[in-house]
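Hi F.,

I've been meaning to write this up properly since the lab meeting, where we talked about keeping a consistent format for the predictions we share between groups. The idea is simple: the sequence comes first, exactly as it goes in, then the structure tokens exactly as they come out, then a line or two of notes. No screenshots and no reformatting. I'm using this chain as the first example so we have something concrete to point to.
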Amino acid sequence: MNRDTDAAGASDPAHEIGTRPEKSSLALHVDLSADSALWDRLPEADAIVRRALDAAARHEGPLPVGAEVSVLLTDDARIREMNRIWRNQDKPTNVLSFPGAAINGLGTVPMLGDIAIAFETVEREAAEEDKPFAHHLSHLACLLYTSDAADE
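Output, unedited:
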């Protein structure tokens, strides 16, 4: 996954990861990157996450203009390290979220927060629940966006 896509999942070579991504239908900017080759096994992950976040945003109501969320598609080793550092839990987890700062009135773009999703844990949970991996991923992205919880 080396390109940003729009909310419908269409790849746009003009939007390499690290640049400002296309707006979704609700003006939610999703900066999505993958740091694990495991995600190459699910090429549609980018589109799945974006659709889930769009659905969650529609459910939550109007967003501030220019609202952004950052998503990292990673693996168990990286998310375990993040979980250890930020939550003092030395184990992998399916998803971590970090809420953004409150809008400060200075006209800056509202950063809604960061989400990290671990491939192996999501894959394992989907198998345990007898659900397709893509369905489980979509559910997690949507649930996390609408929840105040760091993870389940």
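Notes:
The chain is about 35% helix and 25% strand.
The beta strands are 3-5, 11-16, 29-34, 68-74, 95-99, 111-118.

If this format works for you, I'll send the rest the same way.

G.
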